[in-house]
Design a protein that fits this description.
The structure is a homodimer.
Chain A lengths: L6 H8 L2 H10 L5 E2 H8 L3 H13 L3 E6 L2 E6 L2 H17 L8 H8 L1 E3 L2 E3 L1 H12 L3 E4 L2 E4 L1 H9 L14 E4 L6 E4 H13 L3 E3 L6 E3 L1 H11 L2
Helix pairs in contact in A: 2-3, 3-4
The structure holds a DNA duplex (30 and 30 nucleotides).
Chain lengths: ~220, ~220
DNA sequence: CGCATGGTTCGATCCTTATCGAAGCATTCC
DNA sequence: GGAATGCTTCGATAAGGATCGAACCATGCG
């Protein structure tokens, strides 16, 4: 018998598939609600709730209650780092679960991150929005500039904050390792992309596939 | 449902207490046999064997067969890094499993590491044995010098290698983070310490407590 | 104040798996 | 060739925990 920190306790928390999926989903940095995480993990709401309380007890998550919504997020960068380390080993020793190929590549280019766009396209977009001063960095937050507000309104994109959810928020991109845009604005932009049929969501995947014309339109509007 | 590397599979391997103890024991970098790991984990040999085959299947361990001994070791530095990351989180979010206090302090000073001495005293001893040229470093191994052989024989300590177990082996100290002496010589030295009643083992603990006179004797013989 | 929605708790079920004793295989020692 | 040692496999047992439906709280909406 050995002593020391209880690594089995922590590892077994990550060792359940449902919980692992939840943690994976939270790796993007965006806090999610219990229902969203239940969906992500493919379990019922009571099951998810049970898992979430275990993760809370284990100190792996933080909880922010906002009205009747409860947002779960990773407790710390240290926890995120641990999950990355485990992911690294899993990748190294795997057989991979996903069939590698076009879908994986498509995911890196553009995918849905909860309700907004992620991937190379999304990261590039955020960069350009800063360049054009439509968005402004403000002490680690993102703010919509007045020119940005009119810009998006002109595009028919609502920029109103709703129910405590911020308009703009940075979200760390899993594949690119840099930030992309979340928040209601991020969600509204994704809505527009889908509504305008610039792109469509792959079935049973997070991948977002642009049509040739759609890509041109997207680049004209957001990457110009 | 999400995709990606199967992190739950890896984490659940570490998530069993017996396996976690084994992995912890292997973190020193020394490969150990199934029996040693069974002892370390506090389970029976069949149970340990079952765990070891699971860890092998998971790609976390390597196996080196030498005659009828089978030495298990960590598969890679990446695996070790993962365990460190998990340990870090466990330490951060813990409550520690060990009650802190005198016993913990005693453990850091001197404790049993399977069949040899570990802790500050053991690390200091190995340093001195090198200084006195009783032991020699030889391409990452430890060798007994001729003067060392006669020295230990004079003390009534057998230095014969038995059944492929090396006389001298370095073992990374958990608390000091430096090497102490394992192998048959390390075991024989611990035997002598106990036989001479210089120290006694704490009940249900790995701590080794020296008597005042015993400490003097130990210092005279090994730390002079 | 009712009603809808988001979450948690409870209870029962079911399945996985950790565990050990006994037996079996392999290797080395005498 | 036995005998001993190191280790694995097999079989049976038991315990933990993941799961879901139903019922139960809490918040927000009309």
């Amino acid at each position: 018998m050995r002593e020391g920190p209880d690594i089995a306790r922590i590892a077994s928390l990550v060792g359940d598939p449902a919980r692992a999926n939840m943690l994976n989903a939270l790796m993007g940095g965006t806090a999610l609600t219990a229902s969203e995480l239940a969906l992500e993990a493919g379990v019922s709401l009571p099951t998810a709730s049970s898992h979430l309380s275990k993760l809370m007890d284990g100190g792996l998550l933080t909880l922010a209650s906002q009205g009747r919504h409860r947002y779960y997020g990773l407790a710390s960068a240290q926890v995120a780092g641990m999950i990355e380390a485990i992911t690294g080993v899993a990748e190294a020793v795997g057989p991979k679960r996903v069939r590698p190929g076009p879908r994986d590549a498509a995911m890196r280019v553009a995918r849905v991150c909860y309700d907004h766009l992620a991937g190379e396209q999304a990261v590039a977009m955020l960069d350009r929005l800063f360049d054009r001063k439509l968005l402004l960095r403000e002490d680690n937050q993102i703010r919509l500039s007045s020119s940005g507000a009119s810009h998006f309104t002109a595009l028919g994109i609502e920029t109103r904050a709703k129910a405590r959810r911020p308009v703009c928020r940075a979200c760390l991109d899993w594949s690119v390792r840099r930030s992309h845009l979340a928040g209601t604005l991020g969600a509204a932009i994704l809505d527009k992309i889908i509504a305008e049929k610039w792109a469509r969501r792959e079935k049973d995947s997070r991948a977002v596939v642009f049509s040739p014309k759609g890509r041109q339109a997207f680049e004209r509007v957001f990457l110009a």
